[in-house]
Amino acid sequence: MSVRNPLAGAPIRAARWSATHPWRAILGWLALVAVAVVLAAAVPTNTADDVDYREHESGRAAQWIDDAGMSDPLTENVLVTAGASGLDPARAEEAAAQLGREMAEVPGVEEAMAPVWSQDRSALLVAVRLAADHEETGEMTAVTDAVQEEYADLRIRQAGDLTIDEGINEQVEADLASAEGISLPVTLVLMLFAFGALIAAGIPVLLAASSVVVTIGITAPVSWLVPAEATVTSMIVLIGMAVGVDYSLFYLKREREERARGRSTLDAVEVAAETSGHSILVSGLAVVVAMSGLYVVGGVTFNSLATGAILVVAIAVLGSITVLPALLVTLGRWVDRPRVPGLWRLNRRIGRGGISRRLLAPVLRRPVVALALGGAVVVALAVPMLGMKVHSANLETLPDSIPQVVTARDMAKAFPLEGASAEVVVQADAADAARVRSALVGLDEAAARTGDFVAAGDAGIEVSDDGRTTVLDLAIPHEESDPRVDEAVELLRDELVPTALDGLDVEHAVGGGAAESYDSAHHLATYLPIVIGFVVLLTMVMMGIAFRSVRLALVSSVLNLASVAVAFGMMTLVFQHGWFEGALDFTSPGFLIDWIPMIVLVILVGLSMDYHVFVLSRVREHVRRGLPARLAVEQGVTDTAGVVTSAAAVMVSVFAIFATLSMLEMKMMGVGLAVAILLDATLIRLVMLPAVLVLLGDRVWGRREVPGEQVVEPVPELAVSRQP
């Protein structure tokens, strides 16, 4: 007796109810959107703050400093350097003095420090210390601009804690607005090519966009359980539009196919629910499983991104199996109106699978050769990942289009204390404060002798009011992305600090910007293989349950790993080794930003499983109807080629747009995902997957071939009433 998958009936029941109560389903969805909009307006989002990001040893050090009331106030710095005609020291000092006087009068400024010359006297720095909780920079930048205008022969620029963040946020917003402004029209055009009709093209985009709106509204109250990371909305939009469009595409294509065979709209909707609806449910679960891997890493950033992605996928699945069938029943054959004549004919011709059938023919004739050649290409593209290096983002990875970033880089060169630094934080009894201070003076001298640190002197040591916490601030005379910075942190933690504090009854931790970067990169590098194993194992179990085939689950996992390896290899070639720097308009930092491989991994596995499940489901349909394995593979891949091509084209186009943006994180993610999905949808799913399925034969579906015997599993009878 056949045991049916418990997930199989859910899409059918949902579609049946929606198809027989279309207006209730549509109004229910609109009500959900309205409630989400109200939630977004009424409930403030709990955005993650600095405390939420404190992790590892560096986080412990930051917490000790904060508890002791020793946290540095926010500062803004104004840099005075030579103008076009050179640097007049007297004019520079005059301009700096005026800056100090006028900045001191700005509300929220606690103190404007005396101007300081750089060691080579090529620059003057005016540091402005802000009052606690002050985050307004408008009046300060107005002062800087006014002094620059008065001293046109000099170059006067401002950068600091607040203005750099403002510049980054403005650039990110501009990048995302540009991406969204381009991606929506591109998606609509691709949908027109996929359907050849305006209404059919608009439905996937509309449903995906509404899923995003609902998720953004829901994340406001959810953020009080899981604090919202600043980029979570971008993740929701990216994932929501990708899966929302894909799910609607799968469903619509199958419903139209069944109507073309003569079925009524209701019957076509139920067949689509039983086939594509089930694939959507399994695909959605695969994306959720992949995204849940981020919880393994931990931390506010990945917890927030995982929660947002999982919510938007769940809502997109819900919309695809409820309101979409209702819309299709309500619109009936009007879904194919108005037709775009040229595109309609092209769509009908491509839909018959002529192109894919010609590509598949040699694969099916020579599956061993096809698999070997495909595997060789994958290996060649993946090999560079073996030398992949990761590092946290820093000033060097930010684009030159942000003026404050360029200014901050120049400050770091002229004034090393404004660059990479580490803080040694020691907690002890107040009675031992003098001994701790003496030990840190010795540590400062020993650190300077290594050449990896700049001597701070007695002024670099600060003691809390209660005498229990002592901090030594050590500058590192290297660029933040220089590998020697990480080596300096390791030296400080493993040798210098333990030696200096030997014999003292104290607790210590090394923090500061350099240590935070080190901890973040090493934490992610440690957890990346763990997350890969977690995601691959869970998706393998899920595929085994969904298709009741261990072999198929193993094949799916291996192909997913191949896609991930290609993505990592291409990102390493492009961003670590500098391939296509000119074409993509960036300067290679010599590494990948530490969180990018993790995000690319989960997004890629989740999204590629969409059409993987769709293809396998169609092949299995033909196997159950009694077709031999080779013919079932050919027919299944041919039937789904148009849908897979359209789905992959949407993803590749959107990610390619991200590759053109200025922020390096966006470029890395865009290049990695665009190349991997392009290769995944062509070489892996159109060559390697069919070759493997043919070589494994009927056994991969849990069916044994018996000479002269054909096993046919009857197609279940449709349960909805017929109507013309």
UniProtKB/TrEMBL annotation:
It is a multi-pass membrane protein. The chain crosses the membrane at residues 182-200, 232-252, 280-302, 308-329, 368-387, 527-547, 554-575, 595-616, 637-659, 671-696. Its main location: membrane. Residues 82-348, 398-702 form the Membrane transport protein MMPL domain. SUPFAM superfamilies: Multidrug efflux transporter AcrB transmembrane domain. It is found in: Cell membrane. InterPro entries: MMPL_dom, Mycobact_MmpL. It holds the Pfam family MMPL. Keywords: Cell membrane, Membrane, Transmembrane, Transmembrane helix. This is MMPL family transporter. It comes from Nocardioides renjunii.
